[in-house]
Amino acid sequence: MRISIFILFTYLVCQLSTSPVIILPPFLKLHEQNVITIVNEKSVKSVVQVDHGGEKTNKEIQGEVQTISFHTSSSQPTAQIMIKVDGKIELNQEVPVRPDVFNIHIHIDKTIYRKSEIVNVRILPLTHAGTIYRGDLSICLVNGKGFVESSTVRTRRVDETNSIISEQLEIPSHTFFGDWMVKVQPVEATSKRMDEMLIFEKVFQVQDYDLPNFRLFGFLIDNSNLDETKVTIEAKYFHGKPVNGSVHVYCREVGSSSQDRSHLNHLKSGEVSVVESTIFIIIQAQ
């Protein structure tokens, strides 16, 4: 009995000691080179077979540390990988195939929009290695009812001279209010399971709102010249947009509390443009 147990234990130890270590990626990168590494205790022959949507790879390699590199380009969501080491099947399983997209950062210029407004979008797609993903991306707006606005569907990719995608998407004039989103995903993500992993969204609201009241600031600049005083007038909406309009500056004596402007001196007026929300006014002593 003890001899049988010893023989069984010795057999298991031998089996464990001779099993190769196979380093397999969690998924195969679509349209890119993929690498599988096999580590053996001694130099043996390994056969790696990859079947991906009709694309077949069959490679033989000899050595203790074996590295196999191959390319995948089929649209199928999985690939079948079988590895034989020294004539024995050590691995036979399916591995997912997907674009090498780790994250897609989406930035928009506002959080609330009205009908017919333009959504300015900036997109930064990154791979698992932290580099720029340069494959095709599908970009669109999804309305408050969950439907894709077909007029906003775009296909873009980051060109070689940039690191981001800039796009303008117009909200239709006749549409639903509520929570909308910018949706971005790789074009190659055709499988439903892969879509859920590769869809990136940025939520915003579409409402019928009026522009809020603006803020008006006036600043006096210290000046050693007693004959004139420089005043800075700044007018902006609460969301940061400059106010387009005119400004009038009045002056009264210190201590005066009257709200009647008829006795005030109208010193200066000026136009405030959308581009420049700050106007500088020089008030000269009379």
Provide structural commentary.
It comes from Caenorhabditis tropicalis. Keywords: Signal, Thioester bond. InterPro entries: A2M/Complement_sys (IPR050473), MG3 (IPR041555). This is MG3 domain-containing protein. This protein has three domains: 97 residues, Macroglobulin (MG2) domain (Immunoglobulin-like), CATH 2.60.40; 104 residues, Sandwich (Immunoglobulin-like); 71 residues, no CATH class. With 286 residues, the protein is mainly β. A hairpin with a 2-residue loop joins strand 3 and strand 4. The strands form five sheets. Strands 1, 2, 3, 4, 5 and 6 form a six-stranded mixed β-sheet that branches. A five-stranded mixed β-sheet has the order 8-14-13-10-11, with no helix packed on it. Strands 7-9-12 form a three-stranded antiparallel β-sheet, with no helix packed on it. The chain is built from two helices and 19 strands. The N terminus and C terminus are likely disordered.
